[in-house]
Structures are given as C-alpha cells and as structure tokens.
C-alpha cells in the first residue's frame, strides 16, 4: 500500500527489528519462479474447467472480463452460507472484499493512498532497508533478506501509511497473528477471527486524539462521523496492516528471480535508468507469486467457454495464470525476463476493485531493491541450491527464507 508521510528519525528498537519471519510446516523450498506441480491450475492459463472445486478462471481475457464486470454479476463478498459472518477475520469486511455501495463508500475513505508514496517516505524506505541490511550483514552469511524486507514493509505501513505509532511495538505480534490466518491450509476459509489481532488494532481508536494527522486518524474520524461502523473501521485498518505481507512477498520474489536468472548485474546497471527499473518492477509483479488467486461468486448463472457456472458457487479467479497467458504476453510468457517492454498485467486487478495501493507498492519494491543492490556485495548468489522457502497453502505466498551469500572468490 502507499505511504504518505515519514518519521523524522529512524530508530531501530531491538524488539521490532530483524524478526525472523514465521513459516508453517507446509512451506516448500522452490526456485523463486517455481510453484508446486499440484498448483498448476493456478498458474497455467486454460479454458474453464467447471469440474474442479472450486472452478478456476485463468485466461487473461476471461479474468479481465470478470474484473470489469459491466453487468455486475461477480460478487467479492463471501456469502454467509460459505463462511459465517461472526467467524470471519476482520479484513474480510474491508472495502476490497465488499460490493456495491458499501464498497464504493469505504473505498473513498482510502483516497489518500491512491497517489503513492511521498519523496520522504521513499527515502525512509531506502534508509531503513540500508540500516537493517547493515545489521544483518554483521552476521555470518548466508543472510536471510526476508528478515529485512518483512520488517521494513511493516514499519512503512504503520509509521508512514497509517501513521499509527501505538501499533509499532506490536508489529512483530501482528505479523505472527496474520501469518496464522494468511498461511492457513484452507485458504480463504481458514480466515477465522482473531480477537487479539482486533484488540491490537483497537489501540488506534483508544489513542485517537494523540495520533498524527494521518490516515489512521482520518479513518477513526470517518467512523465517528458515521461514514463507517466500528467493525468496518477495524476491517479497513486490518487490510492496510496485512498489506505489508503482499508487498514484502513481491519484493522478495523479484530479488529471488533476478538472482535465479543471473540478472543481478543487469539490475545493478538499471538503477541509473528509470524506464529499465520500471520494467524490472513490472515484470516482478507480473511474474511474481505473491497473491495468485482471488475468490469470487457469480450472483446468477454465467457461461464461460461454453460451460455454465451456477449462481452462488465460489470461483477462483487466477491473476497469476492470466499474467502468464501466451495470447497476451507471447510464447515465453511463463519466463521471468524484465528486459523487454511487455503489455500491462493484472497483478493489481482492474476495474472498480483495482488495488488502491498499486503505485505505493511498486515504489516500495523498487526502493527496497535499489537499497539492496547498493549495499549487498557486487556478486551474490542464492543459497540452499538456488531455492527460497515459500508458503504455498494460504492466500498469500510469502517467502520467509531468502538466503543469499557472496559468491566464492568475489
């Protein structure tokens, strides 16, 4: 998500710095651009196969049609019959996962993030990345870059996007609690309510009058003026907090793929060329695996590829597969290569639900990448046989282990 302001002083409290990212027993060691074979339907575009449960829409044109949805067929809000309202994690009530007028009203409360990050926030991101990376490199290699990326992402969200200082001392715990939900083996239906997560977010409302004049205070004001309910406030705050994970996974995926494909040196040279850096970040989003699918439900029967999907049945819409559709991206669409200019991708969605934090997320990835290219040794390599440890069971495919070390003799 985008950041809007920045603290004048960057501190490094031991309790909130370089925490080891959590991972489950189901995490896999994979090449950065690789996915498990059983997940092929999420990543390989093909005509609709309604025999799968749930059905998966995966071709670029089909996915785009769902996102644009001129007939208002597709629902983002998960029906109570599929998942009881009282049991849901609070972020499932945020604007991004709602429909109709409620979605539009709550979306307007986040207008501040549409423009992306300020110059001060971008300096904060690069400076903090450099400071934490220097601390990490005081340890013997291999260095787990995810420790830096995850911490920087969470601090940017709390201190710059939300400007919610009361949450900072709870940053590590918020990460742990969200990981329990986001990496649940049953995906969206593992998003059970976490009272402790919501209790920490409640600190924003309890200390409302002491907050800086930023997004967190603005959201509480919207609640107090009747624009949203207390539950919707918690949902909006929760969605912003957990966005740290997707942008961190995007940055880690991109760095891993650059190393996997021997393009680290190319990326170092590209830092002096804005258009080349734009292509690198865009290709990281297109080919990254940070958030592969979204759950939607048709409000009435809909026919795709000659097959009819019944009303009310959940359907997975695969951004990842659409972004590797050879009809859109050419014969080598599944290969990571940031050097050519490619068509626009769907990693941030399209239409009325397009991610409001797109610009800020891309800026974050570029800033973290530039800071690491500047400070890491000239020639580093992926450890663990060129693989990263990736969560693959939940809704966000994080990378808790991105291990690198200097190449021998460099």
Automatic annotation (TrEMBL):
Report the leader peptide range.
Answer: none
Q: Which InterPro entries match?
A: Cyt_P450_B, Cyt_P450_sf
> From what organism does this protein derive?
Micromonospora olivasterospora
Q: Mind listing the GO molecular function terms for this protein?
A: heme binding; iron ion binding; monooxygenase activity; oxidoreductase activity, acting on paired donors, with incorporation or reduction of molecular oxygen
Q: What name has this protein been given in UniProt?
A: Cytochrome P450
Q: Which family does it belong to?
A: Belongs to the cytochrome P450 family.
């Amino acid at each position: 998500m985008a950041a809007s302001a920045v603290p004048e002083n960057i501190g490094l409290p031991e309790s909130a710095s370089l925490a080891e990212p959590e991972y489950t027993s189901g995490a896999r060691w994979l090449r950065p651009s690789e996915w498990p074979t059983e997940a092929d339907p999420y990543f390989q575009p093909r005509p609709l196969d309604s025999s799968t449960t749930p059905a998966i829409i995966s071709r670029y044109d089909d996915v785009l049609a769902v996102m644009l949805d001129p007939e208002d067929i597709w629902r983002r809000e998960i029906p109570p019959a599929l998942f009881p309202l009282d049991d849901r994690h609070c972020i499932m009530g945020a604007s991004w996962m709602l429909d109709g007028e409620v979605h539009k009203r709550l979306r307007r409360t986040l207008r501040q993030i549409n423009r992306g990050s300020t110059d001060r926030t971008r300096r904060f991101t690069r400076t903090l990345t450099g400071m934490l990376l220097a601390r990490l490199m005081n340890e013997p290699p291999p260095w787990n870059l995810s420790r830096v990326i995850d911490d920087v992402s969470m601090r940017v969200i709390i201190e710059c996007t939300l400007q919610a200082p009361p949450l900072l001392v709870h940053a590590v715990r918020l990460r742990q609690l969200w990981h329990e939900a986001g990496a649940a083996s049953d995906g969206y239906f593992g998003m059970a309510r976490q009272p402790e997560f919501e209790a920490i977010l409640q600190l924003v409302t309890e200390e409302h009058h002491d907050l800086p004049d930023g997004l967190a205070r603005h959201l509480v004001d919207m609640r107090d003026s009747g624009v949203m309910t207390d539950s919707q406030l918690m949902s909006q705050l929760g969605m912003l907090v957990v966005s740290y994970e997707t942008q961190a996974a995007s940055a880690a995926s991109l760095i891993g793929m650059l190393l996997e494909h021997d393009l680290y040196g190319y990326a170092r040279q590209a830092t002096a060329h804005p258009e080349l850096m734009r292509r690198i970040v865009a290709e990281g989003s297109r080919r990254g695996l940070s958030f592969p699918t979204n759950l939607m439900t048709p409000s009435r029967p809909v026919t795709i590829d000659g097959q009819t999907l019944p009303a009310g049945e959940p359907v997975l819409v695969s951004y990842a597969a659409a972004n590797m559709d050879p009809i859109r991206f050419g014969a080598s669409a599944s290969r990571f290569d940031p050097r050519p200019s490619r068509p626009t991708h769907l990693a941030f969605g399209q239409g009325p639900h397009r991610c409001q934090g797109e610009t800020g997320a891309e800026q974050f990835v570029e800033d973290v990448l530039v800071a690491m290219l500047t400070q890491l040794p000239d020639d580093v390599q992926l450890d663990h046989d060129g693989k990263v440890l990736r969560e693959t069971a939940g809704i966000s495919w994080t990378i808790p282990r991105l291990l690198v070390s200097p190449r021998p003799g460099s």
